User: Which sequence fits this backbone?
């Protein structure tokens, strides 16, 4: 059997198809007594190698909801918090549109760089093959018969959602999905809560009394056992969970008027194929560890 060889030259010339649109004056449906007006920017961009639509490509889609005006808060500061948590700290000094443009430019450039690296590895592999005998001692093919030298496509979606916007609390969630040629796509959720009285991200230390970690761990374990309809930690491990006895607060939470919701992303205390774990804790369950006279404890008292 002769080995099939499919050699595709990768010329690093990017062809681009883009669409841009903006929908103004987005209002969230979770209540808006914080008097913040939102805007949304949506961008989709697809870039082919060698300006050839038959070649692999990278594609990115972004939907960015951000504060446009704020009667009671510094809107510039709010925008920076949204930009930082959506795109990263290196983008905080840019406007929302500039942050999107630069993020997409970097995404395409990274794809270009990976394609160059892949092309070099293919050249090295081809050189090695010319120096190696095509058959092993047993007469079998040395490298396999389906080796492909085709570069792969990347895709990413990035979006945020306003989760709660009342009583001096603004909660939002950033969702990122994508694939870089692997068998398993990645998916992650990043949750952020802003204390509008201070203009800063709300932390667990702001909300809970000292020593809260142990109580939260017990609540997490109890919730996971109930959600999965099992009886023990061992049963959870049989389902793909790991190190549950060590589960700890991960700073990835949302706040609303009913309680606090934690999200543990894929790979956090679970085998990667399992979906993100969502754990809702009511204020009744949390009351004993809530600090007094905070924006959250006041919300819980209602």
Assistant:
């Amino acid at each position: 059997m002769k080995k099939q060889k499919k050699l595709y030259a990768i010329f690093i010339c990017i062809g681009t198809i883009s669409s841009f649109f903006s929908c103004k004056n987005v209002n969230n449906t979770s209540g808006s007594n914080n008097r913040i007006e939102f805007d949304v920017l949506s961008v989709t961009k697809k870039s082919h190698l060698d300006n050839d639509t038959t070649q692999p490509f990278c594609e990115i889609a972004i939907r960015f909801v951000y504060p446009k005006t704020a009667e009671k808060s510094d809107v510039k500061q709010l925008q920076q918090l949204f930009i930082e948590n959506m795109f990263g700290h290196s983008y905080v000094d840019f406007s929302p549109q500039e942050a999107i443009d630069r993020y997409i430019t970097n995404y395409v450039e990274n794809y270009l760089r990976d394609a160059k690296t892949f092309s070099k590895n293919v050249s090295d592999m081809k050189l090695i093959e010319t120096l190696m005998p095509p058959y092993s001692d047993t007469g079998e093919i040395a490298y396999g018969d389906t080796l492909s030298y085709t570069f792969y496509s990347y895709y990413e979606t990035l979006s945020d959602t306003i989760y709660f916007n009342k009583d001096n609390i603004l909660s939002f969630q950033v969702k990122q999905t994508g694939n870089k040629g692997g068998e398993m796509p990645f998916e992650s959720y990043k949750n952020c809560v802003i204390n509008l009285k201070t203009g800063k991200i709300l932390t667990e230390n702001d909300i809970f009394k000292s020593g809260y970690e142990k109580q939260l761990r017990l609540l997490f374990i109890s919730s996971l056992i109930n959600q999965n309809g099992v009886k023990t930690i061992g049963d959870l491990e049989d389902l793909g969970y790991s190190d549950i006895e060590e589960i700890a607060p991960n700073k990835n939470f949302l706040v609303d008027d009913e309680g606090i919701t934690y999200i543990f992303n894929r790979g956090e205390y679970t085998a990667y194929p399992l979906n993100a774990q969502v754990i809702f804790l009511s204020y009744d369950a949390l009351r004993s560890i809530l600090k007094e006279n905070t924006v959250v404890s006041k919300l819980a008292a209602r």
Remarks:
- The mean pLDDT is 85.
